[in-house]
């Protein structure tokens, strides 16, 4: 059997029923930025904040996903591309279920993030790109896992920001400068955007 033999199986529940039940709209919040920029910290805090507001929320984290779904992938460019494609598809499924889906992935290439957005938009789903921005000197100083030190020493190959590129967003919906704000402020910024755009009430 090949892909031409497959058809979409349509259910009897539509998006409006889920929205009415949960009283929220599904949306993917895609946090992108260098390692140690604050993506995972913000994602965790945002998930908890939204759950306290009684919102159906789920967080997908880059490291966690590589222990399961993407454990067969490496860190070369092709593997990074596939990593983000898979996450784009998984986050689309969560968002289709009216979930507020929070993803925290370096996702260094604009083309890959554009593909993740396209996957959502082709299904009529909303995608918010949030650039978690911290200068290289700041993230190197933080370096909680010691990865930048290892990358500078040549112990880690193709490390984003050092020996592999990071392409910053050009038109992100949100720009969070973590060298200038606290986690609480970042969470409030995202929450305010969700309220303003009508994703939550």
**Averaged pLDDT:** 92
Helix content: 40-55%
The backbone outline, from C-alpha atoms, is globular
Which regions contain 5 or more consecutive residues with pLDDT less than 50?
Answer: none
Q: What about the largest sheet?
A: 5 strands, parallel
Number of strands: 5
Q: Radius of gyration over alpha carbons? A: 17 Å
Characterise the protein shown here.
A five-stranded parallel beta sheet has the order 2-3-1-4-5, with helices on both faces. Helix 2 crosses helix 8 (183-196) and helix 4 runs parallel beside helix 5 (110-121). It has helices at residues 15-22, 39-52, 62-65, 77-96, 110-121, 136-142, 147-152, 183-196; strands at 27-32, 57-61, 100-104, 126-133, 174-177. Helices cover 42% and strands 14% of the residues. It is an alpha/beta fold and 201 residues long.
Summarize the structure.
The protein has about 200 residues and is an alpha/beta fold. Helices cover about 40% and strands about 15% of the residues. It contains 8 helices and 5 strands.
Write the topology of this structure.
Blueprint: H1 15-22, E1 27-32, H2 39-52, E2 57-61, H3 62-65, H4 77-96, E3 100-104, H5 110-121, E4 126-133, H6 136-142, H7 147-152, E5 174-177, H8 183-196
Parallel strand pairs: 1-3, 1-4, 2-3, 4-5
């Amino acid at each position: 059997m090949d892909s031409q033999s497959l058809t979409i199986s349509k259910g009897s529940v539509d998006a409006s029923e889920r929205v009415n039940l949960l009283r929220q709209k599904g949306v993917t919040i895609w946090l992108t930025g260098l390692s140690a920029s604050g993506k995972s910290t913000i994602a965790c805090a945002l998930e908890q904040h939204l759950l306290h507001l009684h919102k159906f929320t789920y967080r997908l984290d880059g490291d966690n996903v590589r222990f399961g779904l993407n454990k067969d992938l490496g860190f070369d460019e092709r593997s990074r591309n596939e990593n983000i494609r898979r996450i784009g598809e998984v986050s689309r499924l969560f968002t289709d279920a009216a979930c507020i889906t929070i993803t925290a992935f370096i996702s260094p290439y604009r083309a890959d993030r554009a593909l993740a957005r396209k996957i959502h938009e082709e299904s009529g789903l909303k995608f918010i790109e949030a650039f978690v921005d911290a200068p290289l000197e700041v993230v190197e100083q933080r370096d909680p896992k010691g990865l930048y030190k290892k990358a500078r020493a040549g112990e880690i190959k193709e490390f984003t920001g050092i020996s592999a590129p990071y392409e910053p967003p050009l038109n992100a919906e949100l720009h969070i400068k973590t060298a200038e704000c606290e986690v609480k402020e970042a969470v409030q910024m995202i929450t305010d955007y969700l309220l303003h755009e009508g994703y939550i009430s």
